[in-house]
Amino acid sequence: MSSSIDSLKLNTGAAMPLLGLGTWKARKDQVGAAVEIALMEHGYSHIDCAHVYENESAVGEAFAKVFDGGRRREDVFITSKLWNYDHAKADVRAACKKSLRDLQLDYLDLYLMHFGVASPHGQGIEPVDKNGVLLPAKVSVRETWEAMEGLVRDGLVKAIGISNFTAPMIVDLLTYAQITPAVNQIELHPYCQQPRMLEFCQHLGIAVTAYSPLGSQVEMNGNKPILLADPMIQRIAQAHGKSPAQICLRWSVQRGTAVIPKSTSPEHIAQNADIFSFELSENDLADLSKLDRRLRYVDPYEWWKIPYFD
Ligand code: A2P
């Protein structure tokens, strides 16, 4: 087991380990084993979950085993996320409790608003109209955030944060928030570097977690270029005797972000944890910074026709 994985200090005072295991797109019949291997064999102490991934029960079974047989709950940082259809004040607490039940936990370390858009409750995960546009619900982000603040006060979650929030959304939220978000979880990798967003969040004391740090690979790519096949990343990987994935993950942590690569492959889970024994040089970082092409593998326009990040 690797000895220690560095952490980011959140504005709550808690430590969030830089490396977490992502569970988006992890199959129900594979995710439990992945979580167990990560926590028991490879020194992971951070697991990123979400209700909408539809696998939290399987993750919960793995947590039950792990906390029964080796790891202490308080040594593992666990995140879940509130889905768009649970934004109404009346639904936020029930949604959080559902994730807690599925994950077999008493509390979450972090609960994120998954996206800053609300859709109606009870009409499926992504209800769209006849033109393919996401159906809206008349719920403001403020209503949702204030309900999430109640979860902290009542001890269901240790910290709350946001995901996929743009700068104007953050600026607005801070006009009323009594609790500053601890984290903004956003897409970050060498093809989508968002240096100004990173700088802005850091300025506000909001920690940043990089999702899809490996460019999501096959699942989301469509006709988009494959990040791990990039010749520059491959060259740097070769020079360090590491894999392209390890270069992307190391790049993320050297920028001061947490990183949550998804994997259900034991080999990849092990490899992705081995990023704390080498360093990218200033030259490597300068070369990697040239790769930015503002390419989003996760673009809500493709699902909801909302030009969310335009
Ligand atoms: P697998 O689950 O078989 O490991 P992202 O976190 O950017 O969404 O990327 C997830 C994708 O990257 C998954 O397809 C995952 O497949 C793959 N992956 C995870 N770790 C590695 C690795 N070290 N090398 C290559 N592919 C990886």
Commentary on this structure:
- This protein is an alpha/beta fold and 310 residues long.
- Helices cover 38% and strands 12% of the residues.
- The strands form two sheets. The protein has an eight-stranded parallel beta sheet. It has a two-stranded antiparallel ribbon with strand order 1-2.
- Helix 2 packs across helix 3 (89-103) and helix 3 (89-103) crosses helix 4 (141-153).
- Adenosine-2'-5'-diphosphate is lined by residues 22, 212-219, 228, 243, 245, 261-265, 268, 271-272.
- Adenosine-2'-5'-diphosphate binds next to helix 7 and helix 10.
If you average the pLDDT, what whole number results? 96
Estimated helix fraction: 25-40%
Compute the number of strand runs.
10
- Give the assembly state of these chains: single chain
Write out the distinct hetero groups bound to the structure. adenosine-2'-5'-diphosphate
Percent strand equals 5-15%
Helix and strand sequence: EEEHEHEHEHEHEHEHHHEHHH
The largest pleated sheet is described as:
8 strands, parallel
* Uncertain segments: none
Radius of gyration: 19 Å
The strand order across the widest sheet is 3-4-5-6-7-8-9-10
> DSSP helix count?
12
Q: What best-fitting shape do the alpha-carbon axes yield? A: globular
N-C termini distance: 43 Å
The secondary-structure class comes to: alpha/beta
Secondary structure topology:
Blueprint: E1 7-9, E2 15-17, E3 21-22, H1 28-41, E4 46-48, H2 56-68, E5 77-82, H3 89-103, E6 110-113, H4 141-153, E7 160-163, H5 167-173, E8 183-187, H6 195-204, E9 207-211, H7 218-221, H8 231-240, H9 244-254, E10 258-259, H10 266-273, H11 282-289, H12 301-304
Parallel strand pairs: 3-4, 4-5, 5-6, 6-7, 7-8, 8-9, 9-10
Antiparallel strand pairs: 1-2
Helix pairs in contact: 1-2, 2-3, 3-4, 8-9
This protein binds adenosine-2'-5'-diphosphate (A2P).
